[in-house]
Amino acid sequence: MPSYVFTRNGGAANIRPNWTITEAANGRNRMDFAVHSLDGSVRYANDDEVILTEDGTRIFGGLVDRPAERGFGGSGAASAIEQALGAVDFNVYPSRIAVSADTDQPSESLQARLTWIAGLMAAQGVTLDAGQAVGPTLPAASYTAGQFLIDVLAETVALADGTGATSWVWNIDYSKVLSAVEAGTAAAPFNLADGDGQVVGDIEVEQPRSTDYANYIRLLGGAGTRDVTDAWTGDGSTVTFALTYTLASGYGYVTCAGVYETLGTGATWEYDSATNSITRTSAPGVGAAISMTYVAQFPKAVTADGGVAAANRVQKVYTAPEVFDVVVMQALADSYLTRDMASPKTVRYTAAWDKTDLHPGDTQTITSAKRNLSGTHLITEVRIVKQDRQLVHREVTAVSSTRLPSTLREKFQQTFGGGSTGAASASSITVVTGGTYLSSPASLGGSDTQLIACDSPARVRNPQPYDAPATLAVTVQGLVAARSAVNVTVILWDETDGAAEFSDSPVAASATPVPFSFSGTVTIGHRYWLYVQSGTAGVTATACGQVVGA
Q1: What is the DSSP string of 356-374?
Q2: 3-state helix, strand and coil shares in percent for the chain, rounded to the nearest 5
Q3: CA 545 vs CA 151, 465, 497: distances in Å
Q4: CA distance 420 to 315
Q5: Which member of 32, 105, 342, 369 has the lowest number of beta carbons within 10 Å of its beta carbon?
Q6: How would DSSP label each residue in 474-504?
Q7: C-alpha span between 8 and 87 (Å, rounded)
């Protein structure tokens, strides 16, 4: 029978025999357990480090994040207490640590990108797996100060996925070692077949079309404005050159063959807002290097089309407000399309008690004529359960694919981008005589995982500022959630004035996100942020959203 050892902050400790560990790919693993203290002297606190081993192998390591206590047996008459505790594994660190300074990463291998990311978590004791595969070459990418590593890692593995048949899975293991492995390269310690005794009970199978299914992806990259440079090469005949991004203002300059040339009405180059292009009075010479540096308006929309007839199109919209490179945007959109068009079978079973060392990202060959199953399956979730007087068992979920399904965070982003229907039009800022008018969404950022203390108005995590280009009537919309049922007020905060510009009526929020929408007027030149305020002291909340034209 396996032997289990539990430690708290490096010292041996005792827990009640009922405990559960839940593991999920590209996400956080959790452990739920209970502790009794007869004299009330043992009290677990947030960020206590807990480790559980099975026959000397770590099967959980993480930080307490949900301590709750009461008198033993519900009685307050004695000093004895019982605590119901939750802990999150070390995958929580990327949600706590952000990029410290604006950083431009060159085109490099997956291994090199992960080396940089691991270095940002060195203070937490995180290191990169010494055996990390070099992996595919990633495009150059820029990261802004304050961008959380959870988003950096999600983008990194999505770029590594590309349009291939497999996914990459990142993980910080129970010894604080960061790695990314290609799903399908790590085999589970056993396979399944009818009557082999590896399963307790039956195998369950379902194959509905996933709510995440899509065959047409629209991705909105970037937010706000940013200086960009486009480059072309003259061929001796072409006079008109299309800009990659939408021009946000009349500012910009052009060089041709190393010479600065004028841009404007009646100048050497003229800009056409209808085609978002520039035209020269005469064609640049063959081989002439041409460039234009200008202020671009984001988000920029890119698409990935699965080739399905328009009548059968199922569209999804994702946002990537931290991505400003159109090459990276397109790579992300293509990767999401490959994943979201799949409709794999979902398989669930309980492994025999002696079947251990199963983890998300492992592959199994499952052969069951009774359930019409054959071939390679990818494990996506494992629950390790211990009940009174029962042996430890593992409840396994797998899919008949080697690509992982979308995460909750991506579902948040999809909702903010307009959902699978009624998607926003192509992102742009229309420049007209007399003013600039918002004609598409501008992300306000937010977080789907990090609830914040907000007894008074507080800025959401992973925020994106909105700088009003004119005095405009706008609508703020998105999703709001809270740790428990509470009324939450969502606010558009004016940083320039240091006060709330306008807000929604209190929204009845809970752990399940609900939509919000409210309208008002923003003032030209002012900077705005998304804030939340809880209606009940001590109840944390979060929100994500965007600004759209009213």
Answers
A1: ----TT-EEEEEBGGGTB-
A2: 10, 45, 40
A3: 16, 11, 21
A4: 5
A5: 369
A6: EEEEEEEEESSSEEEEEEEEETTTTEEEEEP
A7: 11
Burial 306-316 (b: 16+ CB within 10 A, else e): eeeeeeeeebb
Q: Determine what percent of the chain is predicted with pLDDT higher than 90.
A: 48
Buried b / exposed e along 354-377 (16+ C-beta atoms within 10 A): ebbebbbbbbbebebeebebeeeb
Q: Which amino acid appears at position 62 of this protein?
A: G
371: tokens are: 């359930």
Give the amino acid at 463. P
Of 149, 232, 209, 115, which is closest to residue 420 (Cα–Cα)?
Answer: 209
Handedness of CA 25, 28, 33, 37 (dihedral sign): positive
Q: How is residue 257 written in tokens?
A: 């063959």
Q: Are strands 216-233 and 315-320 parallel, antiparallel or unpaired?
A: parallel
Q: Is the pTM of this model over 0.85?
A: no
d(CA 408, CA 404): 12
CA-based nearest residue to 217, from 317, 328, 323, 339: 317
Helix, strand or coil, per DSSP, at residue 406? coil
- How many helices (H) does the chain have, and how many strands (E)? 5, 41
Span 310-355, pLDDT tens digits: 999 999 999 888 889 998 899 889 988 988 887 788 999 999 988 9
| Element holding 400 (H helix, E strand) | none
Q: Does residue 533 carry a pLDDT above 60?
A: yes
The Cα–Cα gap between 438 and 297 comes to: 10
**Among 142, 40, 25, residue whose Cα is nearest residue 380:** 25
Higher pLDDT, 344 or 301: 301
Highest mean pLDDT among 122-126, 268-272, 336-340, 434-438: 122-126
CA distances from 488 to 445, 483, 484, 507, 515 (A): 18, 11, 11, 5, 12
Which tokens in the block code for residue 326? 């159109």
Residues 333, 162: Cα–Cα separation, whole Å: 9
